[in-house]
Amino acid sequence: MAVPQQEPKQALLDNDALRWDRVCRRLRVEVGEDVYSSWFTSVSLENCRADCVRLSVPTRFLRNWIQSHYAERLLMLWRGEHPEVRRIDLVVRTAAGRAIGLPPKADPAAGAASTSGKSAGGARPTTAAGMFAATRAEGPGGSPLDPRLTFATFLVGRSNALAHAAARQVAEAETGVSARFNPLYVHAAVGLGKTHLLQAIAWAGEMSGRRFRYLTAEKFMYGFVAALKNQSAIAFKEALRGIDALVIDDLQFLQGRTVQQEFCHTLNALIDAGRQVVVAADRIPIELESLEERVRSRLAGGLVVDITPLEEDLRLRILKGRIAALKAQHPGFDVPDAVINHVARQVTQNGRDLDGAVNRLLAHNQLSGRPVTVEMADEVVRDLIRPADPRRIRVEDILRIVAKHYGVSRADLLSSRRTANVVRPRQIAMYLAKTLTLRSLPEIGRRFGGRDHTTVLHAVRKIEGLVQGDKVLAEEIEVLKRMLQE
Length: 486
Hints:
This protein is of the alpha/beta class. The protein contains 21 helices and eleven strands. A five-stranded parallel β-sheet has the order 8-9-10-7-11, sandwiched between helices. Strands 1-2-3-4 form a four-stranded mixed β-sheet. It has a two-stranded antiparallel sheet with strand order 5-6.
């Protein structure tokens, strides 16, 4: 019985490889060399069977990123080479076949995700959003990571250059090399990019195959409490201490003595083992009064960098980027350069306010049909234009200025010495701390050598009574206030 002639298997494999090569070449031209090198050089073709192309990637992160950003384009490029293709399966390489000729495995553990030109129940084409799950992907055992928050999307200016450079060095350090900046501590006010930098570090670590774990302070806190309740605290500790890097966001929200003790033990264990720790908060370590002194001291012992308010040039670039992204979705949305420059000068607080300004301009333009003008901008962003904040005065500044003014040391002010030349400056410093900062009496007491809040209250009332009848003292305090506010 004659056997029908079939195209040799090797020829089929060669054809698939040639198609994949052409897809890669076209993709490289479309997205540019930098983007292609970052995301696609480690993607491999596993096989092409019937209407399905199976691609593999080395990490979950890369799979999630391609699913979120390039799914539909990949599918269209493959259809251009092979019209019968209706679906692309993306799998993590450790669970995928190693050669093009191997059949795909129906293994849920492989983490395969499919992009298809058909819905599950018929032949209706779907959009990229329908092909995949939500664009937010679970981080490596930690808090959710936003695929948009990477180094590629982080705009660098004078205000954040040092923090960005330190973050990149941490993220790109080679496995097994002792951490150079450990811990790396980033502090800034809200909306200036702390979370973006930390998530970029976590994404980069995941991309390289290292074990990075991103957690908010709240997630760490609830995770540890749940572990205690479930009698799995040992497993919780081992899971954290077996990673390559721990990235903790919003540390100022870490509460509870037991939780803080566990965080301190984890911090020490990781640093002592040469593992990287990255922390972000809204103030410097010494001002995190809710944390124990030993935790603050360990955090301050690494590299502490701040992100200052965004300069006008950086605000301008942020606005242009946001507007360009929205214009791609809403072609009729046109914002003249004069309006962009005006908003960049007026909205100065943080990046979130800039996002709010752009969204409002879009809404008013789309809903009212009015063109975007400077007058419209003034109308819609009025409440985002805030007066410049006065200089933020810290307890540490007060201790330094008062000590210098009265010829005593900072250690004297924090000590238990009761001599007159120390007691009066100490009381004045406590009074200034209460009147010029938002710190509570217990917080001020802790900053002054661990004193009780009643001691601080006594000092404040003492100075308040004295300035009523002592003009010399009243003038001294006014001089100190001016020095602190300069």
